[in-house]
Design a protein that fits this description.
mainly alpha; two-stranded antiparallel ribbon; 2 helices; 47% helix
Amino acid sequence: MSPSTGSRATPGRIASAAILAVVAIAFLVVGIIFCLEPAGSLPSWLGHETVWVGNQHLPSPTYHPLRAVGSLIAGVVFAVGSWFSLRYKAAVTTTKGTGAGVTSAQ
């Protein structure tokens, strides 16, 4: 293994960082949508549910804040993973001769 291994970004690292960044942005956008929109106006693909109460549909408030926080945390975790995949430098290991296989003359 050469000493420069891990010191620069390889195409695999760049690709994984890009994928992680796209996923992070998606989670952050969904988390922001959950925070800004009232529960009644969320689209159905975000898990919007209604409850039938007194002849009308009311938005279900049960998982709205939990999903917002979960999406934001997941976005931050993926963003950190993206950053870490580009900035991480592997420890350089050098193999020194241990004397194995060398016999001493007596």
